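User: Sequence in, structure out. Go.
Assistant: Echoing your sequence, followed by the structure tokens.
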Amino acid sequence: MADFLFVLTRGLEDPTRATRCLQLAHVAKQEGHEVKVFLTDDAVFLAKKGMAENVVATTGDDASTYLEHLRQAKVPFYV
């Protein structure tokens, strides 16, 4: 098992990168790793409830799904 710190700086202006970071954090947590997420710069807007609902990657993945899974898994978020 490894420890991961995901640093997300992208937010509403770059939905693909923001979503991908949350997706990778979600996968790492599912694999049993310790995961922490640090939101900085434009990503701090994702900490506000409801903001991630409109963040959708070009692949169709939405950030809010991964964000909710991470919250349910009690992954710590730092802003």
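User: And one key feature?
Assistant: The first strand starts at residue 3 and ends at 8.
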